[in-house]
Amino acid sequence: MYEKTFPNKRFKHTLEFLQKHIKTSETIFDLGVPNPFSKIMEANGYSVKNNTGEDLDTDQTALQEEKYAVFTAFEIFEHLVNPYTVLENVSCDKLLISIPLRLWFSPAYRSKTDMWDRHYHEFEDWQLDWLLKKTGWKIIDSVKFTHPVKKIGFRPFLRLITPRYYMVYAEKIK
């Protein structure tokens, strides 16, 4: 299903990582409103709940009240001012998070027309690792991958060889 959709490489890697660690019988709370990847998860047999668009920096009610076995946040944490508080309020024992990595040759993303479509954080891998450790999570598995673009030039070449995404599977430390 995802082979013909953009960005197929990112979705392919994310789905494979999810399937490696999470059973379809486990209910997923996917941070963010319903999106193309939550539809891909559902099409592959997962039961997915999303939040309704509330400001997650100040309102973690859904994280505390919903019943779920797995928490996912795919390219969401970079939009939050306060991902620490979100992680503190996750009420399950498993999580998968993916983030775009900070690229030295490209500035942080910022939409000029949409105040929510911007990156407050563009992490390095060690920063997400530290954030997870400080909020009581142990990383079990991680992967990095590139995000080539179909353009010619120096920056597109760098995107071909420089990891753009970092994904982790972690479990709550008991």
- Count of separate DSSP helical elements: 6
CATH domain topology = Rossmann fold
What's the shape? globular
Share of β-strand residues = 15-25%
N-to-C order of helices and strands: HEHEHEHEHEHE
Tell me, what is the CATH class?
Alpha Beta
What would you say the CATH architecture is? 3-Layer(aba) Sandwich
Low confidence ranges: 1-6
Description of the structure:
This protein is α/β, with parallel strands linked by helices. It has one domain: Rossmann fold (3-Layer(aba) Sandwich). It has helices spanning 8-21, 36-43, 61-65, 83-88, 125-134, 154-161; strands spanning 28-30, 48-50, 70-74, 94-100, 137-145, 165-172. β3, α4 and β4 (94-100) form a beta-alpha-beta unit. The termini are far apart. One of its GO terms (molecular function) is methyltransferase activity.
Give the SSE layout.
Layout: H1 8-21, E1 28-30, H2 36-43, E2 48-50, H3 61-65, E3 70-74, H4 83-88, E4 94-100, H5 125-134, E5 137-145, H6 154-161, E6 165-172
Quick synopsis:
Helices cover 29% and strands 20% of the residues. The chain is α/β, with parallel strands linked by helices. The protein has a single domain, classed as Vaccinia Virus protein VP39 (Rossmann fold, 3-Layer(aba) Sandwich).
